[in-house]
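Write out the 3D structure for:
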Amino acid sequence: MKKTILILVAAAMSVVSCNQPQQGPDASNPNRAKPEQTASPATKPDRIADERPAATRPAEKTASTSPSTRAASMPAIVLPPPRLLATVCGQKITSEKLDMAVARAPRKLSDQELQAETARFTGNMVQDKLNTMLADDAKIQCDQAKLDEVHKMIRQAAEKEKLSDEEFMAARDLNEQVIRDRIRIQKLLEQTTAPDKIDAFIKAHPDYFNGTKIQASHILVMCNPTDDTAKQKAALAKAEKIAKDIQDGKISFDDAAKQFSDDYSKERGSELPEFVFADMVPLFSKVAFTTKPGQVSPVLRSEFGFHIIKVAAKTEGNETAPAQLQQRIAGNALVAELLGAMMEKTINAWTITIIEQNPQTQTSPAEK
């Protein structure tokens, strides 16, 4: 799965990231997990990531130049008035960083590219705020030793480019608060995937690791966790109505899948390939494994939206997965519980408002 743009410093990594492309990680099955979909808790990126939108990053430099030479060679940039892109619990997300990145792009973006970058940037910024709010709720504090380590890395990287720390950070849209927040998010991840919690999870769910297989069909109402809250609630209401109509006998599961599912599996009768726990995203697998054969699950939510699962069969396994693989699967599942908690809040507590306006014509917040 695609990760939202997060600063990768020291041991920091993207932990509760869900700004997913709507087609999912697998064109034939949006729910099927990929090995790279969730970073291992032990992941330690060895660089500081550029936070600018991908399409707007300049080409790699082939020769080193001094800061003064670069500054002199850069033309003056006139930016449009900042645009309000979204709010999260009243916190504004505006377009300044996006506008600067677009203005510095090596070529002019097409209208389609600009629209895509605006949507991606907005989703990433919403995700950043949601991640930070999770850390706030857990009362996670920034670790000073880790902060010192990050600043040491920044200093070393800046020296290689002959920049000051401030210039290096500004060029990557980083600031002290962003760094502190990423460290707090990483700390939350580490607490969530502590060794004792991983061991307890493995012991509590042996069928997740022994090759047990599920044969199931499902209905998907797509919805991104960074979508407007009203859109999320509408998707949930749609899924709940479908589930009720199936339960009341007004429509069969198969017919409902054909009519309403957003998943590619509806083209083959909504059936999924037989899967083990790690084949699917954890929030999906968890419900599939607890639903008895012949039964239909309640509405559940994953990174892709709202699902209804019909389990056809469950084949118990007797394999023994390598310990390292078990730990990675358990770590991913525990991180997914954080994601589940976040998605619950975006429906019931944290209001996201996406401003539906053309990025080229909308007015600035000050003009409203």
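Confidence is low (pLDDT under 50) at residues 1-28, 34-50, 58-64, 358-368.
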